[in-house]
Amino acid sequence: MEETTRPHAGRTARRVPSAELLDGLERATALDRPIAVISKKVRRRLGPGKLRDVLHGVPMGHPLHPALAMTTFGCWLSASVVDMTRTGSRAARTLILVGLGSAVPTVAAGLTDWSTLHREQQRVGLVHAMTNAVAALCYSGSVFLRVTGRERAGRMLGYAGLAAASAGANLGGHMSYRQAAGANHAESVGHLMPLGWHDLCALKDLPNGRPVRRRLGYIDLFVLRLGDDVSVLADNCSHLAGPLHQGRVAMEEGQACIVCPWHGSAFRISDGRVMHGPATSRQPAFQTRLRQDGVIQVRPAE
Ligand code: FES
């Protein structure tokens, strides 16, 4: 009989050390006490309102923190390049100072997002913040050394700051791409429903004025009936996939909204527009129509 070989049979999967380290960090329960204290303080300090929405990035439609972080990191990286090539000590100093200045709104936006994340994301986020704080301290010291005439020591401390900022950026990447913090958790919905109208359920089977969840194929839908009007959104919140049908209906700026039960994002029921963060992505909405036999049909809104 011919022997077949299975390339992976009997081999132990090799773990990448840094990935293992990050897995361990996600499970580091020792960080939970400071996380609980800090995130509660941040949430209390930044109650619901325009400022919090801006810091989350609601007007932009995506989180603000990564865009600001690019400015800070970019300035510090550029300063190191200038230092390495010895092309201008004044330019390096200016870049470091611009980076330090931009770190203020970067931290504010990052803390705001971090305060409404899952605990595993917050553990990585806390260490991300600490490494970046070390970077900021190094760069502050670097500027001080430079202006007091110790240029070489200032350059060295700048390189140490870049190393810390790079570690922080790596952790930020882990949070964004592995833990999906800041990602749109409802994006796939539009790709899971075939085009055209689909039967959802009979109008008479929907309670009046109370949101419910209905399943259509692979998708969970938030359904709210008000008389003969039926509004349908994707049920999993775009922020971190919370169940919208368990939220409360509220009026925001005269518009009926559903408020997510997990972190309080508010979405306009008519079209899924974000009225308040932390969500920054619109909730997928569906058009509805009532067939003559009383069956509600839905299709993705254009
Ligand atoms: S899951 Fe966070 S606001 Fe909905």
Automatic annotation (TrEMBL):
Keywords (alphabetical) are:
2Fe-2S, Iron, Iron-sulfur, Membrane, Metal-binding, Transmembrane, Transmembrane helix
- DNA-binding as a keyword of this entry, yes or no, is no
Q: Where are the transmembrane segments?
A: 94-112, 124-147
- What's a single GO MF annotation on this record? oxidoreductase activity, acting on paired donors, with incorporation or reduction of molecular oxygen
Pfam families, per this entry? DUF2231, Rieske
PANTHER family the record matches:
3-PHENYLPROPIONATE_CINNAMIC ACID DIOXYGENASE FERREDOXIN SUBUNIT, FERREDOXIN-RELATED
Give the protein's recorded name.
Answer: Rieske domain-containing protein
Q: Which organism is it from?
A: Microbispora bryophytorum
